[in-house]
Amino acid sequence: MTDRLLPWSAGTWTTEPVSAEVTSVGLEVEAVEGSDAWRHTSYGFVHDTEHALLVPFAVGRAVEITFTAAFREQFDQAGVFLRAGEETWIKAGVEFADGALQLGAVVTHTNSDWSVAPVPEWNDRNITIRVSRDDTSVTVRARVDAEPWRLVRVAPLAGNLDIGAGPLICAPTRAGFRTTFLSWVETAADTDLH
């Protein structure tokens, strides 16, 4: 199977956003204030109110989401979401945390973990998150504009799970956060880690 540009109508929202409008540029989405995905670790709460537009995601495939936004407030976030259920999911992308844009991922198997690295120069630019799935794991890569791919994370994910994947936006601390998703592509998974 070759590259496939997915239409925005292909997916189903995990939680409906304030708005989602297809424009000449892409899909412009406004998040609900308080939307997020997190389970237990350190903070003690469970949030299962993310806005993720999901389609089935098979072993041997990859998904690439390109988007742009003005990340300004604590925990504004966008990227890719993979979901098997309320206790098994992964979000990968960028998040405004502690005064700077951060690139990272949250991997959740009952409890969430979190890893980030600062990328303040990526704000207001075209960011692409690519997630490849094999029969034991996923590999997350990211880039801004046409710069080289960066390895973000290799994380376990069982091949026998039914997974949905697609664009993600959350706004845990404010109203009015918007992201424009520019493209949604399904393609062959990466065969090499390096």
How would you sum up this structure, described in words?
It is a single chain. The chain is mainly β and 194 residues long. Helices cover 0% and strands 56% of the residues. It has one domain (4-188): Jelly Rolls. The strands form three sheets. Strands 1, 3, 4, 8, 14, 15, 16 and 18 form an eight-stranded antiparallel β-sheet that branches. Strands 2, 7, 9, 10, 11, 12, 13 and 17 form an eight-stranded antiparallel β-sheet that branches. A two-stranded antiparallel ribbon has the order 5-6. Strand 3 (19-22) and strand 4 (27-30) form a beta hairpin. The chain is globular, with a radius of gyration of 15 Å. It starts with a strand and ends in a 6-residue tail after the last strand. The mean pLDDT is 95.
Sheet of most strands: 8 strands, antiparallel
What would you call the quaternary organization? single chain
Please state the average pLDDT score: 95
The tally of beta strands, per DSSP, is 18
Total discrete domains:
1
In CATH terms, what is the architecture? Sandwich
The level of helicity is under 10%
Principal-axis shape equals globular
Measured between the Cα atoms of the first and last residue, the distance is 23 Å
What are the segments in which pLDDT stays under 50 over at least 5 consecutive residues?
none
Number of distinct helices: 0
Strand portion: over 45%
The computed structural class is mainly beta
